[in-house]
Amino acid sequence: MRQSFQSTERGLEAGFPLSLYHKAKRLFWDPAELDFRQDQAAFRALPEEAQGLILRLASLFLGGEEAVTLDLLPLVRTVAKEGRLEEEMYLTTFLLEEAKHVEFFARFLEEVAGQKGGLGHHAGPHYRRIFGELLPEALERLEVDPSPRAQVEAAVTYNVVVEGILAETGYQGFFRLAERLQAMDLAMPGTLRGIAHVKADESRHIAYGLYLIARHLGEDPGLWSVLEGRLNLLLPEAFGVVGEVFAPYPQGAPLGLSPEEFLAYASTQFQHRFRVLERARSLGPQALQGL
Ligand SMILES: [Fe+2]
Ligand SMILES: [Fe+2]
């Protein structure tokens, strides 16, 4: 039975989660409004191998966005059950944004690349292990075990590794591709605009995940070993995905992209997040200030 209401007892708490919520509303965008006409013409003018790489990247994104859309709900429910009103208010925007990312990549594949369905073969073993097993298992577990330990494992998997390493590195790849295409007079303005929106959304998702982990570390610094254990399991899988993306091109990927560049970017992104988490060991959620 609910005895009282936080919003009427104390009012809304102006903190990090509520600031993410307000930012999400301010930066709202609609994937259906992107104009892909120029992008479609540019894609058609590309050599077949370059088209193949773009299709591959976009289909891995689409599957990944579907997975994070379907898997987020147990975390929202866990936060709601703990009565964290402002965090849940933010998470309502988070889930809608993942749905919009699915829409964006599905639209891109269908309207720019002319491909609807038949893309499942792009997923390799590391990708399948992360999106088919490790991610859904970590989030579904919260339904039966919402302990701080399980929450840290879920957030490390979902926000630090899947969003913070895989998604961010993938967007970087898309940007690099777009730059090279622009230099060839094959600009894809609708795609670039969409990716910029997705990237901005993801940076809030990652920030929320870091906040959640920092909150738990602030209450129990001993959870650091849980975080490290999870990272040790996940990092080889995540870096393995980058290897899988480039596996079909042993002689060099189209448009001058290279796995070394991606791996370097992925590890820089990871180190940046890891430093925030290290600060959170002593500072708790305060470590997020300025992010
Ligand atoms: Fe997303
Ligand atoms: Fe996300």
What can you tell me about this protein's structure?
- This protein is mainly α.
- It has one domain (about 30-285): Ribonucleotide Reductase, subunit A (Orthogonal Bundle), CATH 1.10.620.20.
- It has eleven helices and no strands.
- α2 (about 15-25) runs parallel beside α6 and α4 packs antiparallel against α6 (about 85-110).
- The longest helix has about 35 residues, at about 150-185.
- The radius of gyration is 20 Å and the shape is globular.
- The two termini are about 40 Å apart.
Question: How are the SSEs ordered, and which strands pair?
Answer:
Elements: H1 6-9, H2 16-26, H3 37-44, H4 48-71, H5 73-81, H6 85-112, H7 125-140, H8 148-183, H9 189-219, H10 224-246, H11 259-283
One fe (ii) ion is lined by residues 68, 98, 163, 202, 205.
Condensed summary:
This protein is an all-alpha fold.
Question: SSE order, as H and E?
Answer: HHHHHHHHHHH
The name of the CATH topology is Ribonucleotide Reductase, subunit A
| Name of the CATH first level | Mainly Alpha
Q: Could you tell me the radius of gyration in angstroms?
A: 20 Å
Q: Count of helical segments?
A: 11
Named CATH architecture: Orthogonal Bundle
Ligands present: fe (ii) ion
Give the CA-CA distance, first to last residue: 38 Å
Task: Determine the fraction of residues in helical runs and give it as a percent range.
Answer: over 70%
Residue windows where pLDDT falls under 50 for at least 5 positions = none
Q: How confident is the prediction overall: mean pLDDT?
A: 93
What is the name of the CATH superfamily?
Ribonucleotide Reductase, subunit A
Which word captures the global form? Answer: globular
Structural class: mainly alpha
